[in-house]
Amino acid sequence: MRWGLSLLTILTLGAAFLVISLVLDHYREHQFDVSLLEIARAEADEAPANHFSFSTRQGPASNDVGPLDNYGLIFGETGEVLAATRPFDKTPPDLATFTTPLRTPFDFTFSGQHYRGVLVGVPNFPRHRLLLAASREDLDGESHFVRKEIGIAFVVSVVWLLAAIDWIIRRSMREHARIAETLHRIATGDVDARVSGEFSDQELRRMGSDIDEITDRLAHLIGHQRRFIAHAAHELRSPLAALHGEIQQALRKERSPEEYRASYVFLLRASERLKHLADELLELARSEDRSKNPEPVSLAVALNDVIDSLEPLAKEKKVRIDRVKSDLVVRAVMRDVERIFRNLLDNAIRHSPESGTVTIELEPGKTIRIRVRDEGTGVPADATATIFEPFHRLPIARTEARGAGLGLSIARELARKHHGDIVVGPELNCFEVTLPRQAASE
């Protein structure tokens, strides 16, 4: 890549200097031709009055040295030479050797020297011709000098550009190497690795920022996974230990049928707790999958169905749940919406005081807000950031030994799967759910 870029730069720079040189040569030659033609016309106009001889006027200027000498020939009607200056005065060339059209400057060689000349007609003498010429030596010398200077400038520019390209590429490669090294450390399990320092290129700066952000999220996910595994192991350990102890106790000695029955009841309850925990873990894993086949879901239908299913628990605690009357429709999966509100309402009932009331408020908009509020003490202010983490339970829930602390986690994951969310409301005894509203055109 480095050599390809360098070669392309050299070729481009060389082409640019070549074009500059050609343009300068063309410009100088054009200025020389204009002056040469102007002097030739003046000589032709004065030739008849000067008895077909040349004046003493100076020739065209080719550089800062000054004007050049005029060299010329005047041909008569039959091509005979009427007047000639040096170097044509000794052996003048024939008119037939000059085939270029009139008033068109051309190059020619005479006696080993290079000249620039032009043929013009003589006024009132249609068959007479005047050739005016000037040496190309100074013009060619100046062109050679300019090309030499441009060549030197080209070489200096190439050296400077190659050094600049090498410096830029080396710096860029060091920055790429830093990013590659960071990625290698991350790939080998070092989630503390970060792309640090400044970058010369905006794209590299953005790449480094994205890598650091991805690493931060990866470190967070790994920490979350480790806590999840630790909590899951802890939750599974208690019922498994109880099962193991009860089975050992039952096999240690003979028992009466009533004692065996009591053991079976104990084992059944422990296994039910394990089953419930396994179902919750499976539900949490499923809640992180993408939503499939969302459809219009009436909030009134979904909420009232959930309320009906929780009615026995509400009656047990003497808690009243306000029914919902609304025509608001969200775009989601019916089963997921019911699970979200079953978990929230179950949580609200269990944390409500006896004879309390659970209220449900709906706020329409492009995104619908649903607030579930109970009359309990609410979430402690220092727990609002962790209440949705798996296995997180408030102290009262731990003492009552109800649930595994996965209900709110599952509810939030299901809401986020549908491009919504769940947060603790302004009042700490309120949870606020946001779900996308079903568009009227759909």
Overall geometry comes to: rod-shaped
| E-strand count | 14
CATH architectural category of the largest domain: 2-Layer Sandwich
Question: Per DSSP, what share of the residues sits in E-state strands of 2 or more residues?
Answer: 15-25%
Poorly predicted runs: 397-401
Spatially, the strands of the biggest sheet line up as 4-3-7-6-5
Distance between the termini: 53 Å
CATH class of the largest domain: Alpha Beta
Largest sheet: 5 strands, antiparallel
Number of helices: 9
Count of individual domains: 3
Structural class: alpha+beta
Give the proportion of residues in helices.
40-55%
Written as H for each helix and E for each strand, in order along the chain, the element string is HEEEEEEEHHHEHHEEHEEHHEE
Over all CA atoms, what is the radius of gyration? 50 Å
* Average pLDDT reading: 80
Quote the CATH topology of the largest domain.
Heat Shock Protein 90
For this structure, what is the CATH homologous superfamily of the largest domain? Histidine kinase-like ATPase, C-terminal domain
Textual characterization of the structure:
The chain is α+β, with helices and mostly antiparallel strands and 442 residues long. It has three domains: 2-144, Beta-Lactamase (2-Layer Sandwich), CATH 3.30.450; 202-285, Orthogonal Bundle (Helix Hairpins), CATH 1.10.287; 293-436, Histidine kinase-like ATPase, C-terminal domain (Heat Shock Protein 90). The chain is built from nine helices and 14 strands. The strands form four sheets. It has a five-stranded antiparallel beta sheet. The protein has a five-stranded mixed beta sheet with strand order 9-11-12-14-13, with helices on one face. Strand 3 (71-75) and strand 4 form a beta hairpin. The longest helix has 51 residues, at 137-187. The two termini are 53 Å apart. The relative contact order is 0.07.
